[in-house]
Amino acid sequence: MARPRKSPAEQKAAEPYPQELQQEPQDQQAPQKQVPPVQAQGPVPTDQAGADAPAMAAVPVAVQDPELEPEPEPLEAFLRRVERLHIARDVVATAATHPHATQRVWPGTYGGIRLEVGPLSVTYSDGSTA
To answer: Hey, is 17 helix, strand or coil?
Structure first.
């Protein structure tokens, strides 16, 4: 019994590479360009039912990194730096806020510094803030 003939679409799908790529002229070589990596848009089929779905074309996407704020210095290092600065200014730090602080009083060199959670800031005995 003879095998049924495959349709042209089935024949093309069975080929490992398209015919255009298999029969490249030897005397004509295209210049090699480096192409930046692209990210695929949409879901990637993972099951047999999704394999029949048309593939989404890969489109280059310009991704901008969000402006991330730098990680604040550790709380202990921040408090030591604050103390060095206030000694140089001849004032005393009375309060400070830090993203990783807990509400408490930190025993400083000349007196306690009230700590609270918040953005980096310091209040000095002369009323100034930094």
So the answer is: coil
**53 versus 106: which is more confidently predicted?**
106
Q: In a 3-state reduction of DSSP, which class is residue 48?
A: helix
Provide the token pair at 71: 């990680």
Give Cβ neighbours of residue 126 (< 8 Å, ≥ 6 apart): 91
Domain segments of the chain as ranges: 92-130
| pTM for the structure as a whole | 0.45
**Amino acid identity, position 130:** A
> How many Å apart are CA 69 and CA 95, to the nearest integer?
23
Q: In 3D, which of 85, 128, 77, 79 has the Cα closest to residue 108?
A: 79
Tokens, residue 18: 């398209």
* Cα gap 113→96, rounded to integer Å: 7
